[in-house]
Design goal:
The chain is mostly helical. It is built from 13 helices and no strands. Helix 1 packs antiparallel against helix 9 and helix 4 (91-98) packs parallel to helix 12. The two termini are 23 Å apart.
Amino acid sequence: MRAKDVGVLVLLAAIWGLSYLFIRVAVAPLGPVVVALLRVVIAAGGLLAWAALSRRQGELAPLDRRFLILGAANAAIPYGLIAFAELHLTASLAAILNATTPLFTTLVAAAWASERLAPRTLAGAALGMAGVAALVGWNPGTTDGWFALAVVAMLAASLAYGAASVYAKRSLSGVSSLGAATGQQLGAAVVLAPFGLATVAGGGSPGPVTSTVALAILGLGLLCTSLAYLLYFHSIAAVGAVNTSSVTFLIPIFGILWSALFLGEAAPPGALPGLGLILGGVVLVSGLGLSRVMPRWERRPG
């Protein structure tokens, strides 16, 4: 890869690493459902604006059942679960746990196709789960039931991403990257709207919404979702899907860095060994086979 292409991947990882910081800032005053709803609404608005500015409105597809399913599985559900988890986890730990996404993607793809898993895949999955156990087992918060539930929520979010990737590959043939991403965010907004409005009406968002919280939400929607997708599409076109998937290895590093710099969060005691085991599992499970099970526009880990 050229230095410019490597720079784009590093920038993308840095931006996606910021998403955990922004969620951590916004979720306490707004609540998980409202954070997820605002994220998809702002992201969809940003993508629609880009389509208009770049005169690519013709690539936008009608909002149908495919986008409602994809919006739920690839945005509404994981965004909400990650936001909930960050009420009880540090941003750095959430970023590390979400690095399990490629593991779940490969397992879901194999199960969907009723394929027998190769020994390397099984070994990689076991190694990745050992990494999760290392993180959870060495964290002093494990005696808290909310902590355990938050870890489960993060793993469920990774599973949702994996299932959504496989579904998208099978159902969105011929849809452009911009059209798929925009339709996904709009579908998620439709799914989340009733829950978000009910939360607000019921006084479920404790507030107050400060300027810092507002900026975090804008950054989450525009920077970490709209712009990140555009960079990701560019990278896939420039260096290919397999090379682009290497961003998975960088996101947790930036998640740890940003949370330490801006939130003063110390990395959990098992961060380095846990991260090493998880990423080792990703290498074994995905490898070059990653390009066969994930769509070219939606191979994202976070």
